[in-house]
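Can't paste images in this forum, so I'm doing it all in text. The chain is below; anyone willing to post the predicted structure tokens underneath?
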Amino acid sequence: MKKESVANGWYKGYTPWLFLFPTVIGLAVFRLIPIGASFFLGFTDWNLLSKPVFNGLNNYKELFSDSEFIGIIGNTIQFSVLYVLGSMLFGLLLALLIDVKMHGIGFFRACIYLPVITSAVAVGIVWNWLLGPGFGLVNIAIEAIGLTPPYWLSDAKYALNTVTFVQVWKMSGYYMILFLAGLQTLPKETLEAARVDGASPLQTFFRVKLPLFSPTMFFVLTVTIIDSFKNFELIYAMTKGGPQNATNTLVYDVYLNAFAYYRVGFASAISLVLFVFVGAMTLFNFYVKKYWANPWE
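Text version of the structure:
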């Protein structure tokens, strides 16, 4: 006991806080303080060169009376819905395909995951080339079978869905890894019992795997919803919000107003709207969790 007390003599009640202190400082400086400053700036008129001038709710009145901004909200919702559905569907399908034990499966997992760690700007540039009218490989292949390809990124009807598809293609490997981790933690005894009882693969998936898998589904859904609002890089690299504002979303509009139009107060108001969107969707997901993501309750 004496040796143990000597060895641990350096430990004090405040010792854990010393280790947490750098992280807390980083959280405050790079997260909490900017959020508070953005909330304050949303009620000001500031162009980065002069002092912020308090203007009350004028920024928010201008936002919600602007039909263009309502369209941007619609773009954001459309992108998020398609991204969440597409990423979860393809991520789960990929996880089911590679949830096998075979020689070289790690190579295929790495190939599927590779777009996730590739720069979004690089991905956008490559897909811009692939989808380019006249010279893009995708359009050349479509023309080769006798069809007329659309203008993927310069037609307002297709641009947003095209960017969403590229984002889903890039990130599906990430959600595949999350789904795969969940699949590999399922109790083998339960799956084996279902097989012995004569359950088909589809019955095993929908009646055994999916209920046990629902906590993982909930986690991935929450992460995907949050990620769906972080779509700046690809939009900047592929369309810059065009054509005719067809691919402009809330996060890209924050960038435009802050660093292109120098309306930092207005951009802060938009960022608060975005914050409310993300928070509301996350809270709603947690609320409905009890109805589908608690198989043991």
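The mean pLDDT is 90. Residues 1-41 form one domain.
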